[in-house]
Every structure is written in structure tokens, then in C-alpha cells.
What we know:
By secondary structure, the protein is of the alpha+beta class. The chain has helices at 6-13, 63-76, 81-85, 89-95, 104-121, 127-130, 144-154, 159-166, 176-193, 206-226, 256-270, and strands at residues 26-32, 37-46, 51-60, 135-137, 142-143, 230-238, 241-248, 276-279. The N and C termini lie far apart (46 Å).
Amino acid sequence: MWEYSDKVKDHFFNPRNVGALEDSNAVGEVGSLACGDSLKLFLKVDPDTDRIIDATFQTFGCGSAIASSSALTEMLKGKTVQEAMDITNKDIADFLGGLPKEKMHCSVMGREALHAAIAHYRGQPSPAEQLEGELVCQCFGVTDLQIKQVATENKLTTVEEVTNYTKAGGGCGLCHEKIEEILLQIRGEQKKDEAPPVPAAKRMTNLQKIAKIQEVIEREIRPMLQQDGGDVELVDVEGARVLLALRGMCTSCPSAALTREGIEAKLRELVLPDLVVEEVA
């Protein structure tokens, strides 16, 4: 049973600012009834000051969706449009005293509706149009670009977390592999973007290196692969070359190259920065 804060319960049972706002000049709509949650956010913005005078909403969804929408309208009143743009889904959840991790997608929906409303006010394409991307989750209509954005902003690292924040993967589960690929891609890009510090010279014997690599595989890599029926075996270490064999579902996985890159990045991070992973049979 999920635990809800008193503030979530209050905004669910006594939602603020419900209904359409007839003189609104900014409207954002996200979600759909087919996917189980939808939100329409109405804003009245003073064009002279760019300040939000009023905000209301219409929501179809669970108690967390209603509470998140109600909280967002309260947070928005009196803010400038630019200040509103800085509100994150975490800010919405924090305002409510926290949300169950399985319901974080409700706060994300609020943030998306806000950005859609501001785009409408500014005469710009909606974020959904800008993030069209490739459809990953057929059940809930979530694209790769949407997953990438939410995962990056919230530092998500697992398929379960992506499901909690976007609902992607929460239906039939056929998109789990694709979501994992996106997460591996994000980790690879983040690694490239980091300004690498000048590492202190590490000296390891080959036995020490093998022991450390095996430890990282057991602790960091194998559990992630086994979630999807895969596995990995350390075959040998020759200098900076780490010879690995992918096992289980990983042997026939079309994203084996991405898996190898993810393993290499983790070993470089936690063992030695010059390690090169090679896949062997």
C-alpha cells in the first residue's frame, strides 16, 4: 500500500483551482484518456509583466495526478513565466511532501503541461511536437526523446525508475530492452561530457586488476544484466584489454554493442581509466 503525505491527501480531497479558465491565454494539454491520465492546464498571464495571475486545471487520473495538478496551480500564481519555467517535477513532489516513487509520473505530467502552456502563450510549438522522437512504449505512447529528457533531468538509472516517472514499460513490458538501451546511451553521453580529472597514477598487479574487475562485475554489472535474463563472464585480462563473454539473453541481443560500451564505461570509472573491453565467444 502506498503511503501518501497529509498534503497529498488534502489536495486530492480538496483540490484547488479546478475547472476551465475562460479568459486564459495559455493552455497546455498532456496525456490521454487511452493512457489512463490526462491534464489540461489553464493560465492567465499578464502580457505587460509576464506574470501569472491565475491558474486552473482539469485532470482525469488518480489521486496523485489530481493532487499534483492542484499543487502546481498554487505554486504558479504570482510567478513570472520565466520563474514558472524553472519549476521541476521534483519541486511539485516536494511541495506535496513527497510522492510514492510509483506515482512520480504525475508530477512529470504537471511539468509537461506547464511547459506546453507556456509554449502556447509564447506562440511556440509544444514540447511534445519538439520531442516527437521514436515511439518506444506502445502501451502509453512514450517516445525515446521523452524518456531521455526525464531520465536525464531526474538522474534515472533503471527501467523501473523510468516506468515510475513516465509509465513507459508499465504495460506489456516489451519495451524494457529499448529503455535499457536509452539509459546506457545516456550514461555514455554523460561520461563523454564530463571534464575528466587528471587521474593519479594507479599501479596494480594483474592479479589485483582481475580481482577488482571481478568485484565490479559482481556488484555493478551482473545484477543489471540478470534483470533481463543476461549475464557476463570475465574470460581474461591482458594488460589494458578486458576479455568478456556475454551470456544468456545478451548473446542474441541486438544491442550487445551498447551493453559492451556500458560495461567498459563502468570498468573505466571504477577500476582503471584506460581499460578496453573486448567481447569474445
